[in-house]
Structure formats: C-alpha cells, structure tokens
Amino acid sequence: MIYSFKGHIPVVHESSFVHPLAAVTGNVIIGKNCYIGPGAAIRGDWGEIILEDGVNVQENCTVHMFPGKSIVLKEGAHVGHGAVIHGANLGRNCLIGMNSVIMDDAEIGEECIVGAMAFVKAETKFEKRQLIVGNPAKAIKEVSDAMIAWKTAGTKLYQQLPADCHESLKEVEPLRAVPADRPKQEDFYKTLQEMKSNNKA
Length: 201
What we know:
By secondary structure, the protein is of the alpha/beta class. 18% of the residues lie in helices and 32% in strands. The protein is built from 2 helices and 20 strands. It has helices at 145-168, 189-200; strands spanning 2-3, 11-12, 17-18, 23-30, 35-36, 41-51, 56-57, 62-64, 71-73, 78-79, 84-86, 89-90, 95-96, 101-102, 107-108, 113-114, 119-120, 125-126, 130-134, 137-142. The strands form 3 sheets. Strands 1, 2, 4, 6, 8, 9, 11, 14 and 17 form a 9-stranded parallel sheet that branches. The longest helix is centred in the C-terminal third of the chain and has 24 residues, at 145-168. It starts with a strand and ends with a helix.
C-alpha cells in the first residue's frame, strides 16, 4: 500500500520489499535490500523519511515525526516488531528491540542495541556501541564485538528476505489438511545459534 501525499510519491528501490499490508506514505525514500513487514506504517506526510540500504522495519512498526522534521534510518538499521520511531534518527547497523519507543530528536548511535520495550526520551543522544535499556532508557554498557556480530548476522537474514519474498511470497487459499509431502522448514535460525555458540567459545 503505497500512497502519494501532496505531490510526494514514495521512492522504493526495486530490490526492496514492502509487504502489501504495510503502508508507505508521501516523502519516503527506501534504499536497496530493505524489508518492510506487514502492519508497518511509514508516514512521510509531515517530513522526509529516508531508509538507507539494508534497513528492516518489521511487523506493526510505526515511523513518523512532528511537522517540519526529517529523519534517517542509516544503513543496516534493524527495527524490531512493534517498535515506534517518532522523529528519531538511527545510526548505522543499530538494533531497536521489539515494542521499544524512540522519541523525537533522539539520536541512536552507530551499532547501538536498544533492548525490547525500552523508552528513549525525546532529545536523548547515545554515542556509538551502547547497550540501551529501561524506561527511561539508559546506556548500561558498551556493545561487545560478539554482540554486534550476532546482530549483524540477524540483519543479514532480513537483507536476504526481500529477494526471497519477491521470489516466493504469494497470496494463496489455505490448505484444509496437512499434505504428506509438506516441505521441511529451512533452518535459518541455526545460523544465529551457531554464531552465538562460536562467540562464546
């Protein structure tokens, strides 16, 4: 669901995937290999929103801002299910945890990790590689090489997902029984488990 607004038409690179149940409105620019999940709303009605290459905005996320603001989600930013980004800028390769809220004029630094359900107050600024948790959110320690390697591996799966969706996602009628030849699920998560195990060694 792609909408123009006051003459602004969203720009979406052909390698990216916007789910038909997401809504992208107005002054929005989406770079290469981005994934926008169902239920996500990216509203560029009051200002410009730029998603650089490799960003994912997962299911039921909201990206918006107050009038007159423009925001950037930098390369590889990873926005988990249900998060709200309202007028905040996200640094390269950062992770925003599920159901967290990042408020206006906040700055999340490069390779920061924001924990699930964190609340980042307006105008709060975090330097790069901080682990950020709580309500109100605070940096509690520096993100380790192992943590950012695990995060980056997970984001790579989302950067592959647009191509997989273009290739195989289609609307269908449900089956009424489980077929004998039902395909086995590919074990994508094994990649992350192996990464976690290797980093502990």
